[in-house]
Amino acid sequence: MRILVFNAGSSSLKFGIFENDKQLFKGSFDRFRDGGCDYAFHDTDSEKGHAPHADLAAAIAAVPGVLRRRGLAGLQAVGHRIAHGGQGFAAPALLDDAAIAAIEALTPLAPLHNPANLVAVRLARGLWPDLPQVAVFDTAFHLTNPGRATTYAVPTSWRQVGLRRFGFHGTSHKYVAHRAAEEIGQPLADLRIISLHLGNGASACAIQRGISIDSSMGLTPLEGLVMGTRSGDVDPGAFGFLHRQLGLTIPQIENTLYNDSGLKALTGSADMRDVEDRAAVGNADAQAAINLYAYRARKYVGAYAAAMGGADALVFTGGIGENSASMRRRICDGLGFMGLELDHDLNAGINLKGRAAPQIQSYGSRVRVIVTETAEQLMIAREVAQTLARRPVKPIHIPVAVSGRHVHLSAQAVEALFGPGYHLTQAAPLRQPGNWVAAERIAIEGPKGRLEHVAILGPLRPRSQIEVSRTDSFALGIDAPVRDSGQLDGTPRVRLIGPAGQLDTDGLIVAARHIHTNPQDAARMGLEDADLVDVEVLGRDGRGLTFARCLVRVSPAAFTEMHIDTDEANAAGISGTAEGELLRDVEARPTG
Question: Looking at the chain, which residues constitute the CATH 3.30.420.40 domain(s)?
């Protein structure tokens, strides 16, 4: 599929042509001033110069002519980068009138970005009226962030109107996470990655097992790291202080935080290259700005390593992340406590040609350090192609089973809890072939409380796994992570108590919702192993709930049913059994 991708900003336009994951053409118009702009085109050869396009709209109108002169015909779709999709756009969306209106309504959350994005959308729909136009949202990748990362501690009425953290640069963070996993040679679903997108806009992202769990940007692209013209983290009390001291209005303060803060405010230049040059000749303001920039980034790296229980890789991308060896070193220096050691020679000799992703950690470093060019347009093209080619899931109903707290024990755990040579008694078979519930029960104990009469499910496993609900974890006083079954590394320890002894073991999780199915039923539903689907479940009392991102697990003899825990069942008004309906297109689970 041949796809034209637009990334329109307030002062620049980047665009490209992609086909079968290959970039055929790359173009840009920027520095609009004095009735013209600079341009750069790259395909089989390169061309740079000045064009008589006074603004973004004129530049977009010139794109068809550029493509004709380059012989780039046969477009099949147009993809658009949209900065803010709010809570309503969790995936790429076809751009019809309703979608455009919904994006426009989000303008207050991204006043520098969404209006420019929509200029490109409207003009492209007029220039290519017969082609599907698809929006890919910066915020969508971060909608997997848990409530503890997205919730501001503010009054309910504020949260009800949409005040929450979102995160941005999602397309970039998603791409570099996949690229890092390819370079490392491990599945993305097994890695903990901290991504630093450092450019005129800058953000950090914690990506745990392929899923974004936190991002430094918040409600708007202002929060977080120091940027070219944006402040990053600022005490919200500054608004009242500046109003009282300087008489500034909210719009004046907001405009300054977006356009006249960051490196520009500290040094007079928003360009890190200028700042580093000035620092090298002794400019104290530039030196202080560099230290502040690196400190803020390093602080987020440490915080995200703590949030994920460690890190397997730190990835640098964006103009500064890709090009400033000194900034990479400043950020990495001092991270030895988490096992990260930089090789200074490798750091100084970066070559990123051909979408390379060189590793620059020293021998023996427990954390890999990777540098790679971001490829947001390529990622947008991939998502557009997937959106248009994706198989629609037919409306199919599947049974839903509520899974109460239970444990899967290892042979060693059985002997520790019930005595040497003990064998569990199979009390009743379960619907999943080969699985059964034991007659015996144990207790689970945490620092706050104890859960009695907890069921044991067989057969035995190589490693014990304890599955509880979120409410159960609060009763125990332990923060149990949401994990797929079997993903037990880095899980908290808990005490198991049996009639013959007790055992302190890791393996405590809140099991991620999932669907068991067999190859025949999977083919009928158009599903594959590790797909993620949305399921709507209606309780007997009429209440319902849509469960997003349910993992599909295909095995030869499985009985087709969806498993949720007791908290999820209570939220949906389910007691006993229920049915769920597959709602929308399939999403491939991140694998690397």
Answer: 2-137, 170-380
Cα 73 to Cα 361: distance, rounded to the nearest angstrom: 44
Measure the CA–CA gap between 382 and 379, rounded to whole angstroms.
5
Report whether 167 contacts 217 (CB < 8 A): yes
Per-residue tens of pLDDT for the chain, all 592 residues = 899 999 988 678 899 999 988 999 999 998 888 888 899 998 888 899 998 998 889 999 999 999 999 899 999 999 999 999 998 888 899 999 999 999 999 988 888 789 999 999 999 999 999 999 999 999 999 999 999 999 999 999 999 988 999 999 999 999 999 999 999 999 998 999 999 999 989 999 999 989 999 999 999 999 999 999 999 999 999 999 999 999 999 999 999 999 999 999 999 999 999 999 999 999 999 999 999 999 999 999 999 999 999 999 999 999 999 999 999 999 999 999 999 999 999 999 999 998 899 999 999 999 999 999 998 899 999 999 988 876 554 568 889 989 999 999 999 999 999 999 999 999 999 989 999 999 999 999 999 999 999 999 999 999 999 999 999 999 999 999 999 899 898 899 999 999 999 999 999 999 999 999 999 998 888 888 888 888 888 766 556 688 888 889 999 989 999 999 999 988 888 877 788 888 755 555 555 4
The CATH code of domain 2-137 reads 3.30.420.40
Q: Kindly list the catalytic residues.
A: 138
The structure's pTM equals 0.84
- The residue behind tokens 């806009």 is 201
DSSP class of residue 342?
B
- The residues that bridge with 47 in the sheet, in sequence order, are 41
Q: What is the CA radius of gyration of the chain?
A: 26
Q: What are phi and psi of 414, to 5 degrees?
A: -60, -45
Neighbours of 413 (CB within 10 A): 23
Positive/negative CA dihedral, 384, 389, 395, 400: negative
- Is the distance from CB of 222 to CB of 231 less than 8 angstroms? yes
Q: Tell me the backbone φ, ψ of residue 405, rounded to 5 degrees.
A: -60, 140
Specify the CATH number for 170-380; select among 3.40.1190.10, 3.30.420.40, 3.20.20.80, 3.40.50.1820: 3.30.420.40
